[in-house]
């Protein structure tokens, strides 16, 4: 056995744990495990010991203006005990400490002396003190009208938990006091595991909440807050489900929202003038009676002590009754005085009367209360306007005090449900119990913390389609502008995130635009905190073509374009760039983007950083004919960068701009020759050599250049046309590439100097005939145009094209005739074998199938192509043909071409004629 003298060195290491906020100070409590090992020899440990430790990190610089994210990064960098993966937890705890009100009644000594237990914290959520406005004295106070003063909670200890549980079996005031003491214990996370094992305590709390939640707001708030402390940790969620606290919370929320709505309706009815609508006076009176009944029921169930005005404010009677009998005077006194006398009477009497009535008649009103309500409502119609105004002001003040306490309860209940909604099944149960409707109703309240919580909960629920549809039906769009126009930045941020989730739906986007969201969201572009989320919402709105034009009435286009130009980073925000790309499809927006030398700045930035997205923006701008002239100065730069840039996405956009510039002021042949683009283009046209997008934009650029006759001759001489034909064979299934290739053929066929080359030296006519009955309408249209030009220029091809069009147009009729003829002559055909050489009565499709579509000199050379074309003949009944039949129409342009082909004009430019003759000689 080794002795202590053999010890040579000690090895220490630590293991990080959970992080908690300090209960009283602005500090973080870092829990970690320290392991110490004493070694005598290497790999020979003598003694090992583990110890749970804490480290307190005090945040002395934390104030209202501190950025939680920056401070969290600083804490993680400086403290080795905190792993980088805990950065989000640290940021959330700092945010909580920043907004927490100091609570001096927490037992600091008791908290520091007790060793924390290992309780796993729920992911991405800190233990937030949701009732910052609730002081310790409020927690200990009774509910409405309870005169018992709050006992100090400084000496509350978990060792006396049985005494606090016994208080839950006493009267209402004692129940409130006992629940407040248990809450004080539950707010310390170290006590939660011990409370979890105390089944008597939890059963008593759930029973009291289930039976008495209608009687007192403070009692309901305290008990729900206790279970909220458990809900902060995922480990305790089964406990909350076991006692069905979530279902009780939803019942409490639903009742409190309806109660507040009833009180508001009663006040609104009282504010209306008596003679405002004489026709519906009777209906208004009945509505007022019902509303007042509900209001008095609510006030009997609970009237908080803070709502009772001071004794000096209780109105005194102005005159003494003549008979000396005060009861006889009730019939003549005003309703406001009666209501004041009843509402301001001793709450203990009202509470006992309410308890007796609820016990005897299950919540029914006592006879004298019913008589009072009927009498007060009847006399209210004839009350003095001045007295009525005073009464309304008083009730409005009472409602505000009541709403403040109620919002505290709602916030705790919603927060508990939000924590429990981590379970998808529980979230679905909440949805079936109308949690979305309750949250949307809560958006009408004024409490900032409650609004933030409601928006956060709605944002979480909005990712489910059913919840989103329900929000749309509840017209949530009309409730949100008030929130993101608030001065509270955190509320604005949460609301904008909710709007972002909703903006994925097209119907909700249209409602947002109709509600005037667009100008309100544009204001956030220059706000650094809300810029990112606001730009994403605006991008979603810009997806609708009708909305794009509405951006011209705001400063969004100018602000977004300037933000791109003035950006100092290499890459611009992709969301901002995507927004500008969408907006540039509108002509007026594009015009605003290039005003004031902005086009020059955009081009300089695009070439400097070779930004493909920025070049895509410029490409969209170049689509508008009125703005194309401004791009002439940059044609040389765009052509030069094609051969030196390695970024294919950037080259695609440059080719797109060049393809859009179909201007007569540009000499395309000089550009192709000066920058040696012909060899580069031929390399791109090799099948499967480059990306299809790059190949497609190259073909589009060739179609633009082919409008110039010199370029068309250059393409024929450089065998670009042959490369296009080979590409057409390889890309038959890509309709877009096929369409652009035959468009290049069309442009080349329009020129007299290149038409004969296309007809006699290439296979383009045969492929055009094959594509004449393609399923794509645009391809059929261009093919018909090209074949009409060929038919006008060459009489031999004209006969073949006419015959092929006849066969295609009448293929169904020919097939039907052939089948009928086969049935009629089948018997004769077997008996008369000698008549095989006779001509059939009707024209058979085999005659058309064997028609020679090529020149006699090229039959042997193109025999394989002819066989492949004949194998795709739709006229044959055994052929499976995939392309629909098209009809033949002669266009007006072709008529003009036919008229001008006989009398060719010789008034072309002298220099161009010379170049044309030289190229023709080379081609010959």
Could you characterize what this model shows?
The protein is mainly α and 924 residues long. The chain contains 48 helices and 3 strands. Strands 1-2-3 form a 3-stranded antiparallel sheet. A hairpin with a 2-residue loop joins strand 2 (27-41) and strand 3 (44-58). Helix 8 packs across helix 9 (217-231), helix 39 packs parallel to helix 42 (777-793) and helix 42 (777-793) packs parallel to helix 47 (892-902). The longest helix has 36 residues, at 385-420.
Give a nutshell description of this structure:
This protein has 48 helices and 3 strands. It is mainly alpha-helical. A hairpin with a 2-residue loop joins β2 (27-41) and β3 (44-58).
Give the topology, please.
Elements: E1 9-21, E2 27-41, E3 44-58, H1 68-78, H2 87-99, H3 108-113, H4 136-140, H5 161-167, H6 172-186, H7 192-197, H8 199-212, H9 217-231, H10 237-242, H11 245-271, H12 281-301, H13 335-343, H14 347-361, H15 367-380, H16 385-420, H17 424-432, H18 435-442, H19 448-461, H20 465-473, H21 481-484, H22 489-502, H23 506-514, H24 517-522, H25 531-541, H26 545-548, H27 556-565, H28 574-583, H29 587-593, H30 598-609, H31 612-622, H32 635-642, H33 648-660, H34 668-674, H35 677-684, H36 692-705, H37 709-717, H38 720-730, H39 735-749, H40 752-760, H41 764-770, H42 777-793, H43 795-809, H44 811-831, H45 845-849, H46 863-871, H47 892-902, H48 910-923
Antiparallel strand pairs: 1-2, 2-3
Helix pairs in contact: 1-2, 5-6, 6-9, 8-9, 9-16, 11-12, 11-16, 11-18, 12-15, 13-15, 16-19, 18-19, 19-22, 22-25, 25-28, 27-28, 27-30, 28-31, 30-31, 31-33, 32-33, 33-36, 36-39, 37-40, 37-48, 38-39, 39-42, 42-43, 42-47
């Amino acid at each position: 056995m080794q002795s202590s003298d053999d010890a040579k060195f000690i090895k220490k290491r630590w293991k990080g744990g959970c992080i908690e906020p300090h209960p009283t100070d602005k500090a973080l409590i870092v829990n970690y495990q320290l392991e110490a090992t004493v070694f005598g020899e290497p790999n020979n440990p003598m003694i090992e010991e583990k110890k749970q430790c804490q480290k307190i990190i005090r945040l002395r610089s934390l104030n209202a203006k501190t950025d939680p994210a920056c401070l969290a990064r600083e804490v993680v960098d400086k403290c080795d005990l905190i792993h980088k993966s805990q950065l989000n937890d640290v940021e959330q705890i700092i945010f909580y400490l920043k907004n927490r009100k100091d609570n001096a009644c927490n037992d600091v000594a008791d908290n520091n002396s007790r060793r924390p237990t290992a309780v796993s914290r729920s992911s991405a959520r800190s233990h937030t003190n949701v009732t910052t406005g609730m002081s310790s004295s409020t927690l200990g106070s009774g509910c409405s009208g309870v005169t018992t003063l709050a006992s100090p909670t400084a000496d509350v200890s978990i060792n006396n938990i049985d005494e606090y549980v016994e208080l839950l079996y006493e009267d209402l005031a004692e129940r409130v006091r006992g629940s407040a003491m248990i809450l004080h214990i539950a707010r310390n996370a170290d006590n939660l595991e011990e409370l979890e094992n105390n089944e008597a305590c939890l059963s008593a709390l759930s029973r009291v909440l289930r039976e008495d939640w209608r009687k007192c707001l403070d009692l309901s708030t305290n008990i729900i807050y206790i279970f909220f402390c458990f809900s902060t940790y995922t480990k305790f969620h089964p406990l909350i489900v076991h006692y069905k606290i979530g279902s009780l919370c939803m019942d409490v929320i639903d009742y409190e929202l309806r109660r507040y709505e009833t009180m508001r309706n009663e006040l609104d009815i009282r504010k209306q003038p008596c003679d405002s609508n004489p026709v519906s006076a009777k209906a208004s009176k009945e509505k007022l009676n019902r509303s007042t009944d509900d209001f008095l029921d609510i006030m009997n169930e609970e009237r908080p002590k803070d709502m009772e005005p001071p004794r000096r404010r209780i109105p005194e009677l102005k005159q003494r009754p003549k008979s000396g009998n005060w009861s006889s005077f009730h019939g003549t006194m005003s309703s406001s005085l009666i209501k004041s006398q009843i509402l301001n009477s001793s709450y203990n009497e009202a509470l006992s009367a309410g308890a007796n009535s609820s016990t005897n008649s299950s919540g029914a009103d006592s006879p004298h209360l019913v008589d009072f309500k009927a009498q007060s409502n009847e006399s209210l119609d004839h009350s003095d306007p001045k007295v009525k105004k005073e009464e309304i002001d008083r009730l409005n003040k009472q409602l505000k005090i009541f709403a403040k306490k109620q919002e505290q309860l709602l916030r705790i209940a919603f927060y508990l449900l939000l924590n429990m909604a981590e379970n998808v099944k529980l979230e679905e149960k909440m949805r079936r119990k109308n949690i979305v409707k309750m949250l949307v109703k809560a958006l009408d309240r004024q409490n900032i913390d409650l609004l933030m919580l409601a928006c956060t909960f709605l944002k979480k629920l909005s990712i489910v389609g059913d919840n989103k549809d329900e929000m749309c039906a509840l017209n949530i769009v009309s409730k949100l502008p008030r929130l993101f126009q608030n001065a509270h930045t955190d509320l604005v941020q949460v609301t904008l995130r909710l709007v972002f989730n909703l903006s994925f739906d097209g119907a909700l986007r249209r409602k947002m635009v109709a509600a005037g969201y667009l100008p309100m969201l544009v204001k956030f572009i220059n706000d650094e905190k809300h810029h990112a989320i606001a730009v994403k919402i605006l991008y979603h709105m810009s997806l609708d073509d009708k909305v794009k034009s509405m951006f011209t009435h705001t400063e969004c286009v100018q602000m977004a374009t300037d933000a791109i130009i003035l950006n100092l980073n290499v890459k611009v925000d992709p969301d901002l760039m995507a927004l500008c790309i969408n907006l540039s499809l509108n002509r007026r927006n594009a015009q605003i983007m290039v005003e004031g030398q902005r086009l020059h700045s955009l081009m300089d930035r695009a070439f400097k950083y070779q930004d493909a997205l920025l070049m895509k923006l410029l490409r969209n701008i170049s689509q508008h004919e009125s703005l194309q002239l401004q791009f002439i100065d940059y044609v040389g730069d765009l052509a030069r960068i094609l051969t030196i840039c390695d970024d294919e996405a950037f080259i695609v956009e440059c080719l797109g701009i060049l393809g859009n510039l179909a201007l007569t002021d540009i000499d395309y042949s000089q550009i192709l020759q000066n920058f040696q683009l012909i060899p580069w283009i031929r390399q791109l046209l090799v099948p499967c050599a480059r990306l299809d997008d790059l190949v497609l934009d190259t073909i589009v650029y060739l179609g633009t250049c082919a409008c110039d006759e010199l370029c068309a001759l250059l393409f024929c001489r450089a065998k670009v046309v042959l490369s296009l034909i080979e590409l057409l064979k390889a890309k038959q299934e890509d309709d877009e590439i096929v369409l652009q290739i035959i468009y290049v053929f069309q442009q080349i066929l329009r020129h007299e100097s290149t038409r004969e080359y296309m007809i006699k030296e290439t296979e383009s006519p045969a492929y055009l005939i094959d594509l004449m009955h393609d399923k794509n309408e645009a391809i059929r249209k261009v093919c018909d145009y090209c074949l009409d030009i060929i038919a006008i220029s060459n009489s031999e091809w004209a006969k073949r094209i006419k015959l092929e069009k006849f066969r295609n147009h009448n293929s169904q009729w020919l097939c039907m005739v052939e089948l009928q003829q086969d049935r009629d002559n089948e018997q004769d055909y077997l008996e008369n074998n000698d008549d095989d050489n006779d001509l059939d009565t009707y024209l058979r499709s085999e005659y058309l199938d064997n028609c020679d579509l090529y020149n006699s000199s090229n039959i042997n050379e193109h025999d394989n192509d002819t066989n492949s074309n004949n194998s795709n003949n739709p006229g044959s009944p055994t052929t499976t043909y995939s392309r629909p039949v098209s009809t033949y129409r002669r266009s007006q342009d072709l008529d003009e071409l036919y008229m001008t082909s006989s009398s060719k004009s010789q008034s072309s430019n002298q220099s161009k004629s010379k170049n044309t003759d030289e190229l023709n000689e080379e081609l010959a």
